[in-house]
Automatic annotation (TrEMBL):
Cleaved signal peptide residues: none
Species this protein is from: Setophaga kirtlandii (Kirtland's warbler)
Ig-like domain boundaries: 3-103
Pfam families noted in UniProt: Ig_3
Name of the protein: JAM2 protein
CC annotations in GO: bicellular tight junction; cell surface; plasma membrane; protein complex involved in cell adhesion
Protein backbone atom coordinates (compact mmCIF):
# COMPACT_ATOMS: atom_id res chain seq x y z
CA UNK A 1 0.00 0.00 0.00
CA UNK A 2 1.41 3.39 -0.93
CA UNK A 3 1.98 5.89 1.89
CA UNK A 4 -0.51 8.64 2.64
CA UNK A 5 0.49 12.26 3.26
CA UNK A 6 2.45 12.26 6.53
CA UNK A 7 1.61 14.46 9.49
CA UNK A 8 4.61 16.63 10.42
CA UNK A 9 5.07 18.33 13.73
CA UNK A 10 7.54 21.21 13.58
CA UNK A 11 7.65 23.88 16.30
CA UNK A 12 7.20 27.38 14.89
CA UNK A 13 9.82 28.76 17.25
CA UNK A 14 12.49 27.48 19.61
CA UNK A 15 14.96 29.02 22.03
CA UNK A 16 18.67 28.74 21.18
CA UNK A 17 20.28 25.88 23.11
CA UNK A 18 17.07 23.95 23.76
CA UNK A 19 16.20 20.42 22.68
CA UNK A 20 13.80 20.27 19.73
CA UNK A 21 12.16 17.15 18.36
CA UNK A 22 10.24 17.11 15.10
CA UNK A 23 8.08 14.18 14.13
CA UNK A 24 6.69 12.78 10.91
CA UNK A 25 4.21 9.93 10.67
CA UNK A 26 1.86 8.24 8.26
CA UNK A 27 -0.06 5.09 9.07
CA UNK A 28 -1.45 3.69 5.79
CA UNK A 29 1.73 2.59 4.07
CA UNK A 30 2.52 -1.11 3.97
CA UNK A 31 5.36 -2.01 4.31
CA UNK A 32 5.91 0.80 6.85
CA UNK A 33 7.32 3.98 5.37
CA UNK A 34 10.77 5.40 5.85
CA UNK A 35 10.99 9.12 6.45
CA UNK A 36 13.38 11.69 5.03
CA UNK A 37 13.56 15.21 6.44
CA UNK A 38 14.38 18.25 4.33
CA UNK A 39 15.52 21.72 5.38
CA UNK A 40 15.02 24.55 2.89
CA UNK A 41 14.42 21.92 0.20
CA UNK A 42 17.68 20.04 0.83
CA UNK A 43 17.66 16.46 2.14
CA UNK A 44 19.18 16.19 5.61
CA UNK A 45 21.96 13.66 6.03
CA UNK A 46 21.59 10.70 8.33
CA UNK A 47 24.30 10.56 10.96
CA UNK A 48 26.59 7.60 10.25
CA UNK A 49 29.39 7.36 12.79
CA UNK A 50 30.82 10.30 14.69
CA UNK A 51 33.80 11.30 12.54
CA UNK A 52 32.01 12.28 9.33
CA UNK A 53 29.07 13.80 11.20
CA UNK A 54 31.33 16.03 13.26
CA UNK A 55 33.14 17.11 10.10
CA UNK A 56 29.81 17.98 8.47
CA UNK A 57 28.81 19.89 11.63
CA UNK A 58 25.62 17.85 12.02
CA UNK A 59 23.76 18.93 15.14
CA UNK A 60 20.78 16.62 14.83
CA UNK A 61 19.82 12.95 14.82
CA UNK A 62 17.43 11.75 12.12
CA UNK A 63 15.68 8.41 12.50
CA UNK A 64 14.33 7.27 9.13
CA UNK A 65 12.26 4.48 10.66
CA UNK A 66 10.44 6.51 13.33
CA UNK A 67 10.39 9.80 11.42
CA UNK A 68 11.89 11.83 14.25
CA UNK A 69 14.38 14.64 13.81
CA UNK A 70 16.05 15.54 17.10
CA UNK A 71 18.20 18.58 17.79
CA UNK A 72 20.11 18.31 21.06
CA UNK A 73 20.83 22.03 21.11
CA UNK A 74 19.32 24.19 18.39
CA UNK A 75 21.21 27.20 17.08
CA UNK A 76 20.20 30.11 14.89
CA UNK A 77 21.62 28.09 11.98
CA UNK A 78 18.76 25.61 12.44
CA UNK A 79 16.19 28.27 11.53
CA UNK A 80 14.57 27.31 8.25
CA UNK A 81 11.74 25.61 6.44
CA UNK A 82 11.30 21.91 7.19
CA UNK A 83 9.21 19.15 5.70
CA UNK A 84 9.41 15.40 5.56
CA UNK A 85 8.73 12.77 2.94
CA UNK A 86 7.35 9.28 3.52
CA UNK A 87 8.20 6.48 1.11
CA UNK A 88 8.00 2.69 1.16
CA UNK A 89 8.88 1.82 -2.42
CA UNK A 90 5.22 1.49 -3.45
CA UNK A 91 3.49 4.27 -5.34
CA UNK A 92 4.60 7.87 -5.01
CA UNK A 93 6.33 9.20 -1.95
CA UNK A 94 4.27 11.72 0.00
CA UNK A 95 5.38 15.01 1.54
CA UNK A 96 3.85 17.06 4.31
CA UNK A 97 3.45 20.81 3.98
CA UNK A 98 6.51 22.95 4.68
CA UNK A 99 6.70 24.45 8.16
CA UNK A 100 9.08 27.18 9.27
CA UNK A 101 10.99 27.01 12.54
CA UNK A 102 12.48 30.22 13.88
CA UNK A 103 15.28 29.84 16.45
Amino acid sequence: VAPTTPVCEVPSSAMTGTVVQMSCKETEGSPPSEYQWYKNGVALLEKKGTGSARAANITYTMNKKSGTLLFNTVTKNDTGEYFCEASNGIGLSQKCSVKRMQV
